[in-house]
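dude i think i finally got it to work??
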Amino acid sequence: MFELIFFSILSVIIVTPFGFILFNQSNNTINLSNQLIYGIIIISFIALLINFFFPLNSSSNTLILILPLFILLKNLKIYFSLNFLRFVVFNSLIIFLLVAKSNIYRPDAILYHLPYTDILNNEKIIFGLSNLHFRFAHISIIQYFSAFFNNFIFGSKGIVLSIAIIASATIINFLSHAINYFKLKRFNFHSFYIFFILIFISYKMNRYGEYGNDAPTHFLFFF
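look at this
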């Protein structure tokens, strides 16, 4: 349990600075959640680019961590602030609850996602892999984000965090917008959109064991 809490906190701290490359505005909760979502996208495509030449093994993935460390040290006012601390706490709490409460066996992960992630961790990109078995065509860029978390810090356990980070970042972003609209008493199309999407997420996307590749795609689409 304590390991999961630590990994949840550390994952948010590591991924968020990647988004600073595309979104470097003030460090309120909405902007930080934007950074986290953009960080997810950037890491996924960095991993894809590296995989053209090298497997995404622990060594390769750990080297990628130099970039967020550099960004953290260059922007101490953003990432060593009370706002960022609160942001990390709220996100890590959602990540922890999603993973900790997930006790449903999902064969999709065993048949499709985990085998492909294992291939990414052990081989450089293999063209025509789906010709070997159709299951390898049922994957997405999210597997590259998952493969990134198999590094010297998280180990192979880290791959379970990837989808939870996408969920937490989107939920925090929408909740922050909803709270702002409520405080300002502004009600427009965007506010109603966020309200109904939050209801949909609460009702239909509250079981982490059922996420697969569909749920994170929906989260990013809603965002």
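The chain has one domain: 2-222.
im so relieved honestly
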